[in-house]
Amino acid sequence: MSSDFHHVLSLNAEQRYNFMLKQVAETNKIWILTDEHGCVMLNTEDEDCVPVWPGEEFANEWATGEWSGCSPMAIELSEWKARWTDGLTGDEVEVVAFPSSEEEGFILSPQEFEQDLTRKDR
């Protein structure tokens, strides 16, 4: 792992979120973790969330402990916009952007996430 990788992981939730938006703009990919049941979900007291990452290595770093059987999977940005935003909204599932190993991440609605992803001023 590079020092850049560890530096990014040490950023706070908002800084990691901004990093993620820039990475997704460059790669046109959003990364999730999957297992034999589908997409990994996190549950807080108030909501169900789908964790997303800016790159395979970051998703893989999170695939430990109870998630050690999970694999990173890329979703093209166009597919995310076409299917995931409305699907997650319909299922009342939030997005947790780039959680760290402490499980802290930026929680927002699928629509807010898509709006941030499509902003042109990045």
Write up this protein.
This protein is α+β, with helices and mostly antiparallel strands and 122 residues long. Helices cover 43% and strands 25% of the residues. It has five helices and seven strands; from the N terminus they run ααββββαβαββα. Strands 3-4-6-7 form a four-stranded mixed sheet. A three-stranded antiparallel sheet has the order 2-1-5. Strand 3 (42-43) and strand 4 (48-52) form a beta hairpin. Helix 4 (77-90) packs antiparallel against helix 5. The longest helix is centred in the N-terminal third of the chain and has 15 residues, at 13-27. The model has no long low-confidence stretch (mean pLDDT 90).
Tag the structure with descriptive keywords.
122 residues, alpha+beta
What's this, in brief?
By secondary structure, this protein is of the alpha+beta class. The chain has 5 helices and 7 strands; from the N terminus they run ααββββαβαββα. The radius of gyration is 13 Å and the shape is globular.
Oligomer classification: single chain
The total of helices stands at 5
Query: What percentage of residues falls in helices of 4 or more residues?
Result: 40-55%
Low-confidence runs of at least 5 consecutive residues: none
Q: C-alpha Rg, in Å?
A: 13 Å
For the largest beta sheet, what order do the strands appear in spatially? 3-4-6-7
Structural class of the helix and strand makeup? alpha+beta
Please describe the biggest sheet, giving its number of strands, its sense, and whether it closes into a barrel.
4 strands, mixed
Round the mean pLDDT to the nearest integer and report it: 90
Measured by DSSP, the beta-strand proportion falls in 15-25%
Helix and strand pattern = HHEEEEHEHEEH
Number of strands: 7
For the terminal residues, how far apart are their CA atoms? 27 Å
Overall morphology: globular
